[in-house]
Amino acid sequence: MKALEGAGANDAKAKETTDAIAALRSEVESRTKQNADAAAALGQRLDSLQQSLDAKVKSATDSVQSATEAARKAAEAGQAQAAEASKAVDRKLSEQAERIATLDKGLADRAPTATVQAALKVVVADRVASALASGVPYAEPLATLRKLDPAAQDQAQALAPFADKGAPTVGQLAGTFRGIADKIAQARQAARVKAASESGDFRTKLLSMADGLVQVRKVDAAAPAEGNAAAPEEAVQAALDRGDLAGAAKAFDALPQEAKAQAGDFGTTLAARAKASEASRALTASAFQALPAPAAQQ
């Protein structure tokens, strides 16, 4: 009986163990399937993200290529415009050269040598003035002018620095100095803020901060006269904007030394350009004055 009872107990334990193993196997299979489903879903998600990323990269690449192409076309258009402008100047110089030749040929037999020379100087001086104003080289007409008028060596020397490469136009100088003026103003404001912070005066600090936003002056103070800039660099900018190179050079000389240092070589270029402009005007005026007066009518 005891043996039979023991065998029955062992069969019950074996069945319980078998059931437990079967349940464990079922759970493992279920979790394995869940993991496989999760892995498949994750793979699909990664594929979707990869496709989205590829699309964004392609869009960004296309945008960069479009911007690069637009910039290239703009640069080519600018070069084409510059080339057309240069061709127009060349045509004008060629026409003036033909005028010189025609004038020389037509007057050689009818006019005194002095009259021919005076007329030639007028035409060549006009060529130099036109080239100087438009920013194109003028070495050839300047050399001709030196030969025609040996007494104009001072003016020719003032024009020489820009003869080979062309001079900066007034508009170019105004645009260049606009950025310089901003730097000078920012440096002055920074110096004021530093000085105010070191002084410890609250009113000075307040005015210093407000100066960067508004111009502070007394209510009963007279408004600045027209043409008088609130800051030294503004006088230079105003003169350049109205085409007054001599006035701009004079105003630049009045700038503080630290402002001139921030401007770099601009002051030298401005002074040379102003001298060249003055020399060109003097040459043109001298050439017209040398023309003989028209004969009085009988």
Automatic annotation (TrEMBL):
Protein name as catalogued: Phage tail protein
Region (Disordered): 53-91
Segments of skewed composition (Low complexity): 76-86
